[in-house]
């Protein structure tokens, strides 16, 4: 049988270990928010600066492709910009979780907002993915031809932008999971 003093020591070691783990999770969340921010902002900038012009028969007739021509790509840029703004604004809250790991209300708010941002980012990336698929493969049933055979640079840039955005979606899902784990460890 252990004495009361030994039980208190073991309990305090467990609390310290749990606090250390919560701090590590908070640091990981902070780093993941920074990485997700750079993915979303670079995806938005890459898509917004994408354009290509091709001459057709003569130099006076040209085909011009840019993201503004397709509403799905415009939505993609706006969604990535909104999520990157949110991620920058959420960094102070994530930093507070590192310093004071007992705060639960702000972590719950961040989880709810993270879920909303995942929905926004995933819908923007999915709508852009449909357009990128059509640009690469076309659709014979509707007589849409694949434009990536002519607009190589345009298609490479929008595809790269799409990859960065889907990586950010995965990082946000990981953030939500980590926040839920950190919140459940407190109970």
How many individual helices? 4
Strand element count: 2
Structural class: mainly alpha
- Ends apart, CA distance between termini: 27 Å
What order do the helices and strands follow? Answer: HEEHHH
What is the radius of gyration?
23 Å
Please tell me about this protein's structure.
The chain has helices at 4-48, 71-99, 105-137, 152-185, and strands spanning 51-56, 58-66. The chain is elongated. It contains four helices and two strands, in the order αββααα. Strands 1-2 form a two-stranded antiparallel ribbon. Helices cover 75% and strands 8% of the residues. By secondary structure, it is mainly alpha-helical. The mean pLDDT is 84. The chain starts with a helix and ends with a helix. α1 (4-48) runs antiparallel to α2. A hairpin with a 1-residue loop joins β1 (51-56) and β2.
What key phrases describe this protein's structure?
single chain; 187 residues; mainly alpha; two-stranded antiparallel ribbon; 75% helix
Task: Summarize the structure in short.
The chain has helices at residues 4-48, 71-99, 105-137, 152-185; strands at residues 51-56, 58-66.
